Amino acid sequence: MRLFIAVNFPDNVKDALCADVSALRDASVTGNFSRRENLHLTLAFLGETHPRRVMDIRRIMDGLGGKASNAAITGFGSFGRGGERILWRGLKLDPSVRAMRDRLISGLKDAGFTPDDKPFKPHITVARRAGFPPEFSEKGFASGLSDIPFRIDAVSLMLSERIGGKLTYTELYRTALPQE
Fold it and tell me: Which residues are bridge partners to 126 per DSSP?
């Protein structure tokens, strides 16, 4: 099972992100654009994991501590990875979310998992391999985007698989974060 732990977004946030993705698609000549149901913030990528370890992951998630907090999707940019250009929306997170993410990574490592622990750069992938006409400007596009406020009130264990040729994420478990 290919697993990761994420923050999923409520419908209104996904709707706003989809409007951004649609505008980006309209401005492009090529690309692979994120589908609505796949929009999320990855907190920890676990990769291939034996199914019997799911209960261990659930216990770690349940013991995270922390509280629900406000956040905002803000900014736009790109980075390269393995010759592939990734376009993203950034996030403004309360320091408590970063602390929770650090506890998550630490708990996973203590339990014998090997999560991807490169520096945390919170972002939402909105497109891969996107190509644009010469007149396209990332800064110009970014200036037309609005911030999208939301509340982080749960963390989810997600399964990543290809179904019918489409990358599909399925929530396997969700742990709520206490309200302040």
Answer: none
CB 94 within 8 A of CB 122: no
What strand order describes the sheet that includes 154-163? 40-48, 2-8, 154-163, 166-176
Q: Determine the Cα–Cα distance for residues 94 and 159; give it in Å rounded to an integer.
A: 26
Cα-based distances in Å from 174 to 10, 152, 167: 14, 12, 20
Pairing of strands 2-8, 30-33: unpaired
Structural element, H or E, at residue 47:
strand 40-48
User: What global pTM score does this model have?
Assistant: 0.91
Model pLDDT for residues 107-151, shown as the tens digit of each residue: 999 999 999 878 889 999 999 988 889 999 999 999 999 999 999
Is the distance from CB of 49 to CB of 151 less than 8 angstroms?
no
Q: Which domain holds residue 108?
A: 2-176
Question: pLDDT for 82-111, tens place per residue?
Answer: 557 889 999 999 999 999 999 999 999 999
Q: Please name the residue ranges forming H helices in 48-127.
A: 54-62, 95-110
Residue 39's alpha-carbon distances to 27, 111, 124, 135, 136, in angstroms, are: 20, 28, 7, 28, 24
Number of domains comprising the chain: 1
Q: What is the CATH number of the domain that holds 14?
A: 3.90.1140.10
